[in-house]
Write a structure and sequence with these properties.
The chain is α+β, with helices and mostly antiparallel strands. It has helices spanning 3-14, 41-53, 60-69, 92-105; strands spanning 20-27, 33-38, 74-82, 109-111. The protein has four helices and four strands. The chain has a four-stranded mixed beta sheet with strand order 3-1-2-4, sandwiched between helices. This is GIY-YIG domain-containing protein.
Length: 114
């Protein structure tokens, strides 16, 4: 791969605009909802799913439920989407505020990871 192509790919990656927001995994059997901040909802869904499938997820309760009831009893969703302009800017504070709002308003919810 030539240097120009490599630089272009790196620049494109740096300027991509992934969906950010609050993600949720809900256990249908118990109704428990696990919420988390996400700077890339698709990547975080895949990451959490992989960790649950391999039983390496840091959230013990979520891992127990996944093992007991299986993937088919879990529902993934994006609860809130953060609208933003600059992909280079850090939106952690806004995402944390959104997470707190969701934790306050959604019954039976807890944090996916700390």
């Amino acid at each position: 791969m030539d240097m120009n192509r490599k630089q272009q790919l790196m620049e494109d990656y740096k300027n991509r605009h992934p969906e950010m927001g609050i993600i949720a995994f809900k256990c249908g059997e118990t109704g428990e909802i696990f919420l988390g901040i996400s700077k890339d909802t698709k990547a975080d869904y895949n990451s959490n799913r992989f960790k649950l499938l391999t039983q390496t997820h840091p959230n013990k309760r979520m891992k127990e439920l996944w093992k007991k009831y299986g993937e088919s009893n879990f529902e993934f969703s994006v609860v809130k989407i953060l609208k933003y302009e600059d992909p280079q800017k850090d939106y952690t504070d806004k995402l944390e505020a959104m997470l707190e709002e969701c934790l306050d308003s959604i019954e039976n919810s807890s944090i996916i990871w700390k």
